[in-house]
Amino acid sequence: MKKIVVFMVSAFCALSAFSEIEVNTNYAGGNAVVKKIDGNEIFLEQDLRDTSGWWFYWSFEVKNAGGKEITVHFANKDVIEAHGPAYSLDGGKTWQWLGADSVKRQKDFKSVSFTHKLPEGADSVRYCLAFPYQMADFKEFAAPYASGERKNFKIYNLAKTERGRQNIYATFGNPNGPYKVVFTARHHSCESMASYVMEGIVSEVMGDSETGKWLGENVEFLIVPFVDLDGVEDGDQGKNRKPHDHNRDYAGVPIYSTVKAIKEILPKWGGEKLKVMIDLHCPWIGNRGGDADLQRRVFFVYSQETPAQKSNLGKLSKIFEGVTLKTPGAIAHSANEDIPYGQSWNTLKTRSSFKSWGLTLEGVEICTTLETSYSDVRGLQITDSSARNIGRNLAYSLKEYFEKTASGIGAK
Ligand SMILES: [Zn+2]
């Protein structure tokens, strides 16, 4: 978060104040360690901070480069997504992908660079691994609902974070309906595309569509938009944070105040009506080709389910697949791409993750992770709007799940 200013020292540039390129990370979510600025070339790497091992989140702003063609070199392996870096010319309000053509990758993924010819007058441009999403974005999104008049939308204090921030959760829908549902995001702070999926879910429920009406009448929702709020605001990786990250904090006594509050509040709030809990994530970086491109999809992750819970998730996943296939232009989900428990990296033995903890709560039918690729699913871009559409399709799927398959209180 330190402001880093590096002035060019060549004789030519000493004559021209306009040539001083500045790299800044002093804003919410900023993350980069600048090594050198040489002419229009910037050399930097992601700031790993307290991460155990390697990860790939970064976010920085380049100033005074309007009209120039800049090249940014990343020293610590290939940290650029399938569609290039995300960039914003309006101070982080709107984002797009720069494109795969802007990127030069080393074959062995040891380093990577991108080149961008900035429009004249674009004197400040932000770049990020993906489209960022901060507390300020959530507050802006939730502002139209803040009066609480619509569908009982309410924001509550959740916990004071380790770094002194006030974390929050929100509830909406019908407290007297038969079902309760939880969505969480940013257990791993860098996984920002998950937040747009959450926006899509909330928009659908709060809206006037048939799905929104049904869910608003039959379900009360609780969302925790930023489990690792400090990591989100400070621009940490969050994933594999030492001594363990927020999604390895659910066994025993949590070390993070937010996780402690979630463990206390959710079961009390949900009681026996709490049926579905979905934790929104993004997977590994989707730039490696081969097997690593299995990351480029939208998939559920199974955990330590009972046979009934496993069957319920299978049903929801199939419904979700059907909904995405029916929606023209939608990012498709395929149930056979879900990750079974015990396969690949999905072998957690303890119940230290959110989903493995949630599965132990009385009456919970589904508690899972939904992973949404950072930038690409089969050639289609993940953007703010396509990620919101994934959330909308998940909301349609929930309605269908409850109507067709849910058991217990209120089931028809
Ligand atoms: Zn994650």
How would you explain this protein's 3D organization?
The chain has about 400 residues and is α+β, with helices and mostly antiparallel strands. The protein has two domains: about 10-130, Sandwich (Immunoglobulin-like); about 135-405, Aminopeptidase. Helix content is about 25%, strand content about 25%. The chain contains nine helices and 19 strands. The strands form four sheets. Strands 11-12-14-13-15-17-16 form a seven-stranded mixed beta sheet, with helices on both faces. A hairpin with a 7-residue loop joins strand 6 (about 85-90) and strand 7 (about 95). Helix 3 (about 195-205) crosses helix 4 (about 210-220) and helix 3 (about 195-205) crosses helix 9 (about 385-405). It starts with 10 loop residues before the first helix and ends in an 8-residue tail after the last helix. Residues about 1-15 and about 410 have low confidence and may be disordered. The structure holds zinc ion. Zinc ion binds near residues 191, 239 and 281.
Cofactors, ions, other ligands: zinc ion
How far is the first residue's CA from the last residue's CA?
53 Å
How many individual β-strands? 19
The first-level CATH class name of the largest domain:
Alpha Beta
- Fourth-level CATH superfamily of the largest domain: Zn peptidases
Instruction: Please name the CATH topology of the largest domain.
Output: Aminopeptidase
The biggest sheet amounts to: 7 strands, mixed
Counted up, domains total 2
Helix content: 10-25%
- CATH architectural grouping of the largest domain: 3-Layer(aba) Sandwich
- Radius of gyration, Cα only, in angstroms? 22 Å
Structural class: alpha+beta
Strand content: 15-25%
Q: What is the approximate shape?
A: globular
Strand order of the largest sheet: 11-12-14-13-15-17-16
